[in-house]
């Protein structure tokens, strides 16, 4: 049996950490025999780095059991932790100087995770062996709780789940003897060796933590656009293992469109050498208003589809759970989970393309209105009596700051001789005025083009200021081809414009940042939302807090 044991060094307010001494003892006097091998690992008292070192250590050592220790404040020598909370919230910094207040550990993850082990039985076993112990429902919100939550999630999501336990130990001055923790550790291992541990819902002995192709989890993300569709298959580590892209023929009706979606899904699975039954879930991001609960496409004007029961049709054909969401919501969710907004409590996304879309994620949930769709920031009025918008109103953000609106303005500038470099490169045909051409013309001295971009950024900032005054997000993510081509220009002027217009208390309280995931945001966000929405976290369910 191979056991990995982790401890921590001292941290602010705790100059001596007895778990560091345990690791030192295990290194100086190793436990290694044919029946039992113990690997000691000292983790940093840092939110981010503790995750990295833990993950790398488990992947390298492949233990059968992980026992983690941290120092607490309780007088009882050992406190076995039942519950990890998905939140960092401490008054002191970690050893890297990072303060965290109300920050989710895993954005979009379950709010609580509970140990699957009979900790009352283990506490009794420890007491009988001379090691006083109690169970606990509150591990705090510092790095110990961070590791507890992350470790449980890591253990339960592994290809073959492995047992994990976090124990708080009393301060060094309250422990009975210098070798108390080493002896208690051996007693814990003895108890685990005697247990028929729960694995996958059935009783089985401890299993060696190895990869099994049959046990792997696969997810699919699907991005449905106005002219093309993309399917990507992800493994349990969120690596892309296959993808398939198809164009949507103009005039394709809803029935034909769903058939093409299905063929794209099936071809991507074939490339991955999988079947629909291998998928734990499929998420699909679609343009336009969506009824997320029913998976119903309410109105897709660019495709001419209305009231399409997409979730029902896909699930009936694939025999696989499906989650449907708006494509901009998917992009925002991806940035929240894996991109530029990681670690934020509240983040908004603004994506400028043919139109301008927006999304908001708060505490892991996509913000939704009464009709399951909201955050149409592109239709916030920013100019009285401005240009007519496609929605029928005037002066919407989309009508003055989308890619099409900007292209129309720079085409006029080129026609009037104010953008000679752009005229030389692209002419006045809107179809030729791409993000790269605009960037190049600015670099070559077309000041009129730069002024148009700055003015569009000002309008985006006006809309964002209104949102900041309403919900006060920590991060605003800007995306779209234009922002990707000229991030510094957009970020500088959007941030300046927004900060001029927010309440004084909110000035500089938020960051405007460029999107990090680019074209992958929508398809990845759809897959990540499926993982969260469909509850496929190894059967883990949230529990009520008792603290």
Describe how the helices and strands are arranged.
Elements: E1 2-7, H1 18-28, E2 37-42, H2 47-61, E3 65-71, E4 78-81, E5 83-85, E6 88-89, E7 101-103, E8 112-114, H3 119-128, E9 133-136, H4 143-157, E10 164-169, H5 180-193, E11 198-199, E12 202-203, E13 218-224, E14 228-234, E15 240-247, H6 254-271, E16 279-286, E17 290-291, E18 296-300, E19 305-308, H7 310-318, E20 322-326, H8 327-338, E21 346-352, E22 356-362, E23 365-366, H9 397-401, H10 403-415, H11 420-426, H12 435-443, H13 447-471, E24 475-479, H14 481-485, H15 487-501, E25 511-514, H16 521-533
Parallel strand pairs: 1-2, 1-3, 3-10, 4-9, 13-16, 16-20, 21-24, 24-25
Antiparallel strand pairs: 4-10, 5-8, 6-7, 11-12, 13-14, 14-15, 17-18, 18-19, 21-22, 22-23
Helix pairs in contact: 2-4, 8-16, 10-11, 10-13, 11-12, 13-15
In short:
With 547 residues, this protein is α/β, with parallel strands linked by helices. Helices cover 36% and strands 22% of the residues.
